[in-house]
User: Which sequence fits this backbone?
C-alpha cells in the first residue's frame, strides 16, 4: 500500500516535448533581449536597465525551475526544500549589500 | 511459494526504490536538500562578488578601460559576445537534458524511437554542451590571465575567479556525472526503472544552469 502510494507520487505529470521546446525558445529570446539591452548605451544609462535585467533573469530562473526541474508538477516538499534555502540566500545577499556596500 | 516469491519481489523493489515515510524517493529528497544547500553556497559567493563590485583600486576592470601608473592601457576585460555564446550553449544543454530524461522515462513507448528518442544521443549532447561551456570558460580564464587579470590582481579578480571557478567546477562534476550515465546506458541500457538516476542528475544540471543565469546577469551584463 505504502509502496503503491510512493510509486503514484513518483509517476507525476511532466511537460511535453512541445512545452520543453517552447521553454527553450523563450529562454533563448530573453537571453537575446538581455544581450541586446547591454549594447544600447541610452538604455544602459537609464534607471530601467538594472531592474529590467534582474526581471528578465528572474523570469528565466523561474521558467527553468518550474518546467525543466518540474517543480511546478512535483511534490510540495521539494518546493519547500528549494525555496526555503533560496529565501535564506536572498536574505543574506540583501543583508550583506545593506550592511557592507556603503 | 507464491507468497514467498511476492515477498522477495517486494523486497527487491524496495531495495531499488528506497521510499521514505513521506512516500517519496529518498534520492530525490536528498538531491533537493543538496540543491538547497548549494543555493546558500552560491548565494554567499554572489553576495561576496556584489559587495566587492566597484571596489578594486587597480585594474583591469570588468566594464571600464584602465591606464596603469606605468602608462599601460587595459581595455574592459569582459568579453560579452563569447560569454553570450557559452550561455546559449548551457541553456540548450538544459533542453537536451530534459529530452534525455523524457527518452529514459518513455523508452519503448510510441513516439520515442530513433535518434530523437534515444537517451544515449541526448545524454551525449548534454555532456558535449557542458564540455563546450567549460572550453569557453577555459578560453575566457586564459585570455584574462594574458591580459593581466589573475585571482591575485585585485578584488574583482579574486571574487570573479572564485565565483565563476566554483560554477565551472560544478559544470565539470555534472559532465562527469552525465558521462557515467552515458556509460551505464551504453553498457546495459537505461529504462523507465532507472528514471530516478537520470532525474537527480537532471536536477543538478538544471541547478547549475539557473546559477549561470544569475551569474550572467549580475556579473557580465549589469555594469
Assistant:
Amino acid at each position: 500500500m505504502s509502496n503503491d502510494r510512493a510509486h503514484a507520487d513518483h509517476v507525476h505529470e511532466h511537460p511535453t516535448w512541445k512545452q520543453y521546446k517552447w521553454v527553450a525558445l523563450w529562454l533563448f529570446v530573453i537571453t537575446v533581449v538581455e544581450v541586446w539591452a547591454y549594447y544600447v548605451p541610452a538604455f544602459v544609462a537609464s534607471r530601467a536597465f538594472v531592474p529590467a535585467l534582474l526581471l528578465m533573469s528572474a523570469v528565466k530562473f523561474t521558467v527553468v525551475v518550474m518546467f525543466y526541474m518540474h517543480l511546478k508538477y512535483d511534490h510540495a516538499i521539494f518546493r519547500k526544500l528549494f525555496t526555503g534555502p533560496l529565501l535564506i540566500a536572498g536574505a543574506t545577499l540583501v543583508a550583506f549589500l545593506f550592511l557592507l556596500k556603503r | 511459494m507464491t507468497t514467498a516469491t511476492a515477498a522477495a519481489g517486494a523486497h527487491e523493489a524496495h531495495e531499488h526504490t528506497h521510499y521514505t515515510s513521506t512516500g517519496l524517493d529518498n534520492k530525490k529528497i536528498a538531491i533537493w536538500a543538496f540543491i538547497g544547500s548549494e543555493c546558500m553556497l552560491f548565494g554567499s559567493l554572489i553576495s561576496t562578488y556584489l559587495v566587492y563590485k566597484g571596489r578594486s583600486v587597480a585594474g583591469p576592470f570588468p566594464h571600464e578601460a584602465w591606464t596603469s601608473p606605468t602608462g599601460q592601457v587595459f581595455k574592459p576585460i569582459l568579453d560579452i559576445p563569447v560569454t553570450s555564446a557559452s550561455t546559449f550553449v548551457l541553456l540548450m544543454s538544459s533542453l537536451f537534458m530534459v529530452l534525455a530524461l523524457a527518452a529514459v522515462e518513455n523508452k519503448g513507448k510510441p513516439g520515442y524511437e530513433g535518434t530523437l528518442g534515444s537517451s544515449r544521443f541526448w545524454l551525449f549532447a548534454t555532456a558535449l554542451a557542458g564540455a563546450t561551456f567549460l572550453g569557453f570558460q577555459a578560453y575566457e580564464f586564459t585570455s584574462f590571465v594574458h591580459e593581466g587579470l589573475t585571482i591575485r590582481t585585485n578584488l574583482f579578480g579574486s571574487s570573479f575567479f572564485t565565483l565563476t571557478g566554483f560554477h565551472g567546477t560544478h559544470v565539470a562534476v555534472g559532465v562527469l556525472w552525465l558521462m557515467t550515465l552515458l556509460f551505464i546506458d551504453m553498457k546495459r541500457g537505461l529504462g523507465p526503472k532507472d528514471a530516478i538516476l537520470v532525474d537527480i542528475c537532471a536536477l543538478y544540471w538544471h541547478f547549475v544552469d539557473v546559477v549561470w543565469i544569475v551569474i550572467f546577469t549580475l556579473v557580465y551584463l549589469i555594469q
